[in-house]
Amino acid sequence: MKVSILDLVAQYATIKEEIDRAVAGVIESGQFILGPQVKVLEQEMASYCQTSHAVGVASGTDALHLALRVCGIGEGDGVITSPFTFIATAEAISYVGATPIFLDIEGNSFNLDPNQVEDFLKGRLKRPGWPNAKRPKAILPVHLYGRSAEMRTLTEMASQYGLRVIEDCAQAIGAEHGGRRVGSWGDAGCFSFFPTKNLGGYGDGGMVTTQDANLAERLRTLRQHGSRTRYYHEELGFNSRLDEIQAAILRVKLQHLETWIEGRRRTADFYRQALRDGDVVAPLDDPQGRHVYNQFTLRVPRRDALQDYLKERGIATMIYYPLSLHQQKVYADLEYREGDLPQSELAAREVISLPVHPELAPEQTAFVAETIRSFYR
């Protein structure tokens, strides 16, 4: 039996008529850049994410980059963030001239540890390699794998210390915490529409959500070459516009997102029950909210051997992420040392993500679970 990590072809087959009609409608309209589909998608995303505004941009990385800029983060600033995430989180901080301040994660959620943040802000957490000259100006939590970070605690600390909060929601659209959706807690929420995301386009795309009308207007200016009126430029901006065709596709998919999330949650519940007596540690659901399982990520002994064993039997898996960002060559100048962020380093050695997409058949998920059990037997 073959089990893919994702099956976008199967997903397309279930919504083919809707997608084809939406794409054809854009082509027939002749409007391809910042047309009515983008505008309506922005309204629908703002409503879905419980925010006042949403601004479409070219990618999730651009969403982070532009959000940091409009929040006033720049040269000489420090941004507290997780080292256990995709490189785009830290790249965006570096793009604006700021410095990532990597703090450790919680072992059970894989998200930024609020206790580490508190200890750092109170001066209880120091080491020679940290950029001590970089005053923290923002916190950039990542809602990894589809589970919200502890936003109530983090936003309270940010308010106490006068810090901006930019949420990396790339893997977590629809996730909830404390009765609120991700993207509604901070000054800005940053979403990716990369095809592998729970709400993915057929190409790149991104969105920034915010409650602040001034931030939203500045985002619209920056994404369009620093211009509010064509050919009149107020500042140095960027070419970062969400395509009209992608917006039309995403509008179709957004109508199915809740159904797909519930499918992922059912698969996650099955895996948790099926693997509860083994050597693996399954991810916990969020007791204060809703995990949307962009990935279903186990912690396992002998991870690499397990991955090879599954591959030999036709089961695809992924490792998100094999090397923590504080250990990457690109950030060697920050002088982190092995052992500085032990939870992140341990997770990089133990994590493996299983197929969890809603197109999986029950016999496929059963096969995956039984194959894992057989490996450890």
> What's the CATH architecture of the largest domain?
3-Layer(aba) Sandwich
Question: Biggest β-sheet: count, sense, barrel?
Answer: 7 strands, mixed
Determine the N-to-C terminus distance: 20 Å
CATH superfamily membership of the largest domain, which one?
Answer: Type I PLP-dependent aspartate aminotransferase-like (Major domain)
SSE topology string:
HHHEHEHEHEHEEEEEHEEHHEEHHEH
Specify the overall morphology: globular
Indicate the low-confidence ranges by residue numbers. Answer: none
Rg calc: 21 Å
- Per DSSP, the total helix count is 13
Multimeric state: single chain
Query: How confident overall, as mean pLDDT?
Result: 96
How many domains? The number is 2
Question: What is the CATH third-level topology name of the largest domain?
Answer: Aspartate Aminotransferase, domain 2
What top-tier CATH class of the largest domain fits best?
Answer: Alpha Beta
Strand arrangement in the largest pleated sheet? 1-9-8-5-4-2-3
Instruction: Provide the structure class.
Output: alpha/beta
The count of β-strands is: 14
Indicate the proportion of strand residues.
Answer: 5-15%
Helix content: 25-40%
What does this protein structure show overall?
It is a single chain. Helix content is 39%, strand content 14%. The chain is an alpha/beta fold and 377 residues long. The protein has helices spanning 8-14, 16-29, 36-48, 60-70, 87-95, 114-121, 151-161, 213-223, 244-254, 257-274, 303-312, 342-350, 362-376, and strands spanning 53-57, 77-81, 99-102, 135-140, 164-168, 176-177, 180-181, 188-192, 206-210, 227-229, 232-233, 289-290, 296-299, 351-354. It has two domains: 8-254, Type I PLP-dependent aspartate aminotransferase-like (Major domain) (Aspartate Aminotransferase, domain 2, 3-Layer(aba) Sandwich); 257-376, Aspartate Aminotransferase, domain 1. The strands form four sheets. The protein has a seven-stranded mixed beta sheet with strand order 1-9-8-5-4-2-3, sandwiched between helices. Strands 7-6-12 form a three-stranded antiparallel beta sheet, with no helix packed on it. Helix 5 links the parallel strand 2 and strand 3. It contains 13 helices and 14 strands. The model has no long low-confidence stretch (mean pLDDT 96).
